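Suppose you are handed only these lines of text.
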Amino acid sequence: MKSLYIHIPFCKKKCHYCDFTSFSGREALMPEYIDALEREIYLLTTNHYPLTTVFIGGGTPSILSPQQLRRLLNIIKNNFDLTNLKEMTFEANPESLDREKLSILQELFSEAIRLSIGLQCFDNKYLKDLGRIHSSEEFLDKYTQARMLGINNINIDLIYGLPGQGLAQWQNTLQKTVALKPEHISAYCLTPAKGTMFDYNNVSVDENIASDMYKFTSEYLPANGYGHYEISNFALSGRECVHNKIYWGNKEYIGIGASAVSYINGVRSKNVADLGAYLKDAGKKSLVEESESLDEESKLGETVMLGLRMRRGIELTQQIESKYTDIITKYKNDGFLEIADNRMFLTQKALFVSNTILADFV
Amino acid sequence: MRIRNFCIIAHIDHGKSTLADRILEFTKTSGYDQSKPQMLDSMDLERERGITIRSKTVKIDYHSKDGNDYILNLIDTPGHVDFSYEVSRALIASEGAVLLVDASQGVEAQTLANTLTAKKHNLVIIPAINKIDLPTADIAGAEMQIMEILDIAEDVVKLSAKSGIGIVDVLEAIVQRIPPPVGDVNADLKAVVFDSYYDSYRGVVIYVRVFNGSIKPGMKIVFLSNNKIYEVLETGVISLKMIPTESLSGGEVGYIVANIKDIHDVKIGDTLSEVGKTQEKVLSEWLESKPFVFAGIFPISPAGYDELRLALEKLRLTDASLIYKNVSSSALGPGFHCGFLGSLHLEIVKERLEREFNANILITSPNVNYKLKLKNGSPMIEMDNPAKFPPYFEIEYIEEPYVKATIVTPTEFASNVVELCKGNRGKVLEIRQLEAFKSVMTFELPLAEIIVGFYDMLKSVSKGYASFDYEHIGYKQGDLMKLDVLINSEVVDAFSYIVHTQNIEKVANRLIEKLRSTIPRQMFQIPLQVKADNRIVARDDIRALRKDVTAKCYGGDISRKRKLLERQKEGKKKMKQFGRVEIPQETFLALLKIQD
Ligand SMILES: Nc1nc2c(ncn2[C@@H]2O[C@H](COP(=O)(O)OP(=O)(O)OP(=O)(O)O)[C@@H](O)[C@H]2O)c(=O)[nH]1
Ligand code: SF4
Ligand SMILES: [Mg+2]
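From them, the structure of the protein bound to guanosine-5'-triphosphate can be written out as follows.
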């Protein structure tokens, strides 16, 4: 059983904080790109892998035209065994999502469909600051359409810690989000990545305000029925993202598309990020730009690093216990780690400073 | 054989090593390499810093204008005050000295200090003005200063070591003015050790100046300081390489290999005699390079202790002026308390440990040696480690070392210099204002006030013009107190600091500021305090870290995030774990510069 990630590296406009592999103004290449995806998939699967989860991410997958979307979904259907598919996440931005695309998703994947919409915040001023090209009204419209078409598993992506944003404004965004009753909420602290517009303008996050916002979020959402299951992720019961838990559980997955990463047989490999190279080589020769075969030590380090992101933590195996005895004791004594039912997990106060802790485990 | 033994002395950077280059070049000494300026500065550190650290001897053949062939034994010396010891030993082997004065700088503090030492040894001094090629050269001014400040009336040679002007004049002056060595070749052996170094194949190689008799392989020699006896295996002369000879006799300078294993058996200034023959010391006492500045050196992780010990042992073979003893700090664990000639020497040792031995080390802020009189009536004790100071109430009084500092400055900065010295508990001893627009001033200063940052401050109050030299003049009582630094409520003994009571607040606040600005925020709040005799004199907190999180981590990010965390972990490894607090190297470095 495998998980599949497909990367759609196109966006209408680059957001000011974003360093994902995504290109704006190259939409004309989308048909060719889907051809290349098909070739890459074809080369990969002669024998119809059975999939449990699919995640179409970006970039902005909703930027595909209805025809292109239909084609992409059919390629997936034709090349993989989807009998046991549990979840098919599709990332969308309000400006490019529409009724027709929603219907196609619903038609081809029905029950499995999980829609993830990038809202980021309810205040149009901050949306503009972030370089987003939609309004909160537009989001509401698309969200309602999705609901009306019967899509019953929706995530809303939010960002906090924006320059000038106060706790009250963030609380407001959270309240409005909760009122919509999405199944899942991802709330990320702004991270002005290197090389982005924000980085260029030296935008920094006020760590005291951000930390207060985080604290509020992790009290407010659970109080409203959203379980806090990963550092930045909250879900109604039974609605945690199955696909992302594959990553955090350090399980294997296949990535397709420019810059996509696969983890297969203990090897992490990354496809070329260059669009031209990808279009040219897909299906013809290896697309791997970097790869790393993980030794046992790095593997264990990753298992801990990823697993402790989840509130349920990791199984405290003999191996982990003996390798990290001192570190575990230290953080346990200081109230940053807890152990219960043979599992080890970070405490609430540890989450927002978790890198300091995780660094000791890698 | 016509021999001339001489050294080149000067203030730092006045061109000694460059003059040596020109002499080697002019005399076509074999091994001279034009592509290596200041080629006698052969240690990596010397080349990188562009300064001479060790004295270097080289034998040169010179055909003089008078038609005769001469053997010149040239010794290039360092100019920096930390290495004045190197100058002293060069003087043992010389009858004369070429005293260089930079034409644009004039006479400076080490010019004066080295002149006085050379005069004390009754050396013939050849004054020479170098760098006459510079547009800023003031030859007349320099000449006047040589007369006025140095009280030297001899003819001044004018040269440019860089452009090769006046080199023959220097050589001819050496031949004509410096007397040949006197010695009786037929008398019993009498030779003085003026340098030594450790060679991993041959053991200790010693440099000697033979006064009487001769020395040859097979001879049994004795060191008069400790009566140790060795058999000479090889003798030779020192040119750009070592050239073995059948013997060394009266008047000559050369090296001896005698299967000596421990460099500490060899004392500079010691006399060598032949076993069973007359034994008479040349110098009444040997020269000792006494450490005046002390600091703790600790491995960053306790596991590095053995490696550090080995590294120090090896370093001591080539640097006899470094001393160290074991010490155990409650904060830093086992390490070494080391003694240095001065702050530059400390810096050089640190760099060599890191570079040549890959040692990961921490150095505590430097201090001087103190003498303590305790109330319990016991005799005075010496204490070179503030961490080990007894509690204040047990101390009757403390004495600290003083220096007599000589500062030469353009007169316009004289009042700034006086202010600076007074601000550092200095007392004016003498001020001489010279016609040459320069002032020569002497001060009495506590050594503790000048080992860190003083030199930089002197430069900054004089636009870089003032120069500074000092000699040690013994101990005086001082109103001193120990400051204890508490991090997270525990005393970090390695940060203990001795201050004059009038400076308590100032220093305590600086200590806090250095800690606060260099210790990264951690998972909990860290109180910082400085105590003087159990009274808190400064305090602050390092607030707890609030955010250190990777908000998003999905399939594509895993390797990158792991590597980021690995780097973070590497960074932590470079920190010293003190209780629950991690202290980075930067903190130690900052405390080394407590003055700014
Ligand atoms: N213009 C000019 N520069 C010179 C002359 N002689 C030396 N220098 C420069 O002065 C600087 C110092 O020269 P060194 O020969 O290293 O001086 P030093 O006296 O040996 O210095 P220490 O050994 O560190 O005391 C170098 O940059 C030389 O190139 C000269 O005659 N003219
Ligand atoms: S944040 Fe999303 S929509 Fe914005 S540029 Fe990045 S991938 Fe595209
Ligand atoms: Mg030199």
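What can we learn from it? Residues 190-274 of chain B form a domain with the Elongation Factor Tu (Ef-tu); domain 3 fold (CATH 2.40.30.10). Chain B touches chain A through 26 residues (CB under 8 Å).
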